[in-house]
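protien #1 (seq + structre)
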Amino acid sequence: MDLDAQAVGASEKYDKYFHEIGCGYKKLVDYMYIEPAICQPTPAGLSLLVEDFVARTNHDLRAVDQQQDDGPVPTMIDRFKKFGAQAAAIPFDPLRPVGVILTHGQHHACPVLFMRKDQTNYVLIFDSTSGSMKKAYRKVGTFFPDCQVMLNDGTRQSDSQSCITDAYEILTRAFTVDDLIGKVEARVIDERAASSSTAASVRASRFSAPEVDNFRLFRMPEELCFTAQRTAFVTQTSKAEMQMPIRDRDGRLTTLKDMMRLQKTVAIGNQSEKWIGINSYLHDVSVEHRERIKQLVDQRAVDPGPVGDDGSR
C-alpha cells in the first residue's frame, strides 16, 4: 500500500466520528483570506467525548441523539416535546446535576441541565440560537409541568456549524460554576415588561405566545459567555461583570472582556461584504476535540474493552 492510500485509509477510519466543515467565515492570514474549518463531531464522535469526560470527572453528562430516520427535521419545540417523555427517568439530585446534549444527527444541538435546589426541580436550557425562538420556547414549560424551565436569552452563535461543540463546552463548564441556579435566578428578565411600555399595551392574541407559569428567561452568567461568537451577546452584561476575574479553560486568571478581546478574529461573512468580529473559541477547541476523538478511536482499536454476555463490547 502506498503512502497516499494509507493516508486515505487513516482518514476514512475517523469519518464516522467527525466532519471538517468550512466555518462560513474567512480569516485574514498572511494577507490572504482563508476559510478555517470547524470539526463537527457526529453523534458517534460526541458519544466518545461524553464518555471520556464522564470517565475523567464523574459528572453525569449524556448525549441523546433523536434522529431515527431521514425524514423532515422537527422543530426544537417538537424535539423537546419528544424529549419530555424520555426525561421522566432523569433524576433531580441537588448534589449531582445531569447534563444532556440534545442532538438530531448533524442538525442543531441544544445543551440542557437538570438541577434541584430548595425543593425545586430546574430545567436550564442553554440554546445557542434562542433569540428568535424564545416566544415559541414557552411551550416547553408545558412538557415539564413539575419543573421550573429556564431559557437563556439571546443568540450567541454566528455560524451554522458550531452548536454541537458549543453544547459540549457549555455543559462541561456549567458543572463547575458555583451556585449556578442562584446566578441564573439573579439574571431572570421580564420579557413582556421589557418589550412593552405598559402592561395595558399587551393584548391577548391568538398569535401570542401562551402564558406558562413555569417558564422564564435569563441572561447568561458571565462564566458561561465564553463560547459566544457575537460580541453583542457578551456586552449585554453589565460593565462590572465584564471586569470580574474569571478563569479561562486553561485555568488562567483573566476577565471576560479580555477573554473576548483575545479570542476574537477579524472575519468577513460569506453572505455580505460587511466586516464583523467573531469569537474563534469554538473553531479552535473543535480541533482539540478532533484530536481527542482520534486518540479515543485508536485506543478502542487497540483495546476494545470487555465482551458482554450478549457478545457486545
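ok now protien #2
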Amino acid sequence: MGFLELLSGSGLSKEQRVEAISLAYATGQSLLGLIGENP
C-alpha cells in the first residue's frame, strides 16, 4: 500500500511512477502465487 500512496502524491516523476507501478504489480503477482499454493 505504501507504493500506491506514493503514486497519489505529485512529487514523483513519470519514470518513478512507472517503476513503482511495476514493482507493486510484481509484488502483487508474487502474493497471489503464494495464496494460490495454500489450499
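The chain has one domain: 2-37.
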